[in-house]
Amino acid sequence: MEAAARVVAESRAGTTRLSVLHGEAPLLPRQTGPAEVHFVGGAAGPLGGDRLTIDVVVGAGATLTVRTVAATLALPHRDGSLSRLAVTVRVEAGGHLAWLPEPLIAGGRCHHETLSTVDLAAGASLVWRDELVCGRHGEEPGDARQRTAVTVDGTPLYVNDLFVGPSAAGWSGPAVLGGARVSMSVLVAGHEAPPVHPQATPTEALMPLAGPGFLVCGVGDEVWRVRQSLEPYLKCLNLPGASAT
Q1: Which helix (H) or strand (E) holds 21?
Q2: Which of 36, 38, 93, 129 has a C-alpha 20 to 30 A away from that of 174?
Q3: Helix, coil or strand: residue 232
Q4: Mean per-residue pLDDT of the chain
Q5: How confident is the model at residue 239 (pLDDT cuts 50, 70, 90)?
Q6: What is the mean pLDDT of residues 204-231?
Q7: Domain housing 128
């Protein structure tokens, strides 16, 4: 299956308007608030062999929050072919995007990659959440990769490439997930790290970035527990979407 979706948010007279809201199953965007979009799954997937693309543009001065109504479950094809979701984002000066999808679940024997490229203009801001769950209950994960790259005014700010599954050597070891089933990261770009934050622990940390920006990340066994553990790092920010939940 090949499918594409496109969302364009523009600021008109100080109010965000969605000038483009287009999608093909299984990528069906629905406006759920004045400046909020939820993606609804119009079909099962991604399945092995699927090629899916999402294009998001946030215009100067506009604010947009993007969510999904449910987790994304990557499933295998009998021939072992790769499924791919490519996300391309552009945020113009003064624009703000909160990207808050539900987790990607790497189903058993899947072969999937999500590749996200985010281009921020100078003066733009971003809250970007990536979550990966290694298999369904009682299931070992297939191969899944989450790669996110963010630039600010053409300068690289952040690149993260997480690869789990039987083809990823050492993915469950202490250098990667340390035996955890859930990985979560929240990138905040365009704002300095909060001046007061909890001490880093073996399962969570805050890392300032150049840009300005910072990354909060954590691992655990349940999505809701990891989100809860990261909330203290983010709750002091007065930004749309600056929350682990």
Answers
A1: strand 15-23
A2: 129
A3: helix
A4: 92
A5: low
A6: 92
A7: 2-175+206-212
Which comes out higher in pLDDT, residue 244 or 110? 110
Tally of domains in the chain: 1
Q: What's phi and psi for 229, nearest 5 deg? A: -70, -25
Percentage of the chain beyond pLDDT 70 is 96
Asked if residue 200 is part of any domain, the answer here is no
Return d(Cα 126, Cα 120) in angstroms, integer. Answer: 8
- Are 128 and 119 a contacting pair, CB within 8 Å? no
pLDDT of residue 151: 97
Instruction: Find the angle CA(23)-CA(29)-CA(30) to the nearest 5 degrees.
Output: 135
Instruction: Give a yes or no: residue 183 inside a domain.
Output: no
156-177 burial string, b = 16+ CB within 10 Å, else e?
ebbebebbbbeeeeebbeeebb
Nearest-5° angle of CA 54, CA 60, CA 130?
Answer: 40
* Residue 100 forms part of a structural domain: yes
Q: How far is CA 11 from CA 19, 34, 47, 127, in A?
A: 10, 12, 36, 19
Tens digits of residue pLDDT in 37-70: 999 987 777 999 999 999 999 999 999 999 999 9
3-class DSSP state of 229:
helix
Q: Whole-angstrom distance between the N-terminal and C-terminal Cα of the chain?
A: 31
CA distance 221 to 177: 10
Q: If residue 227 lies in a helix (H) or strand (E), which one and from where to where?
A: helix 223-234
Q: What sign does the CA torsion over 228, 229, 235, 239 have? A: negative
Does 77 map to a domain? yes
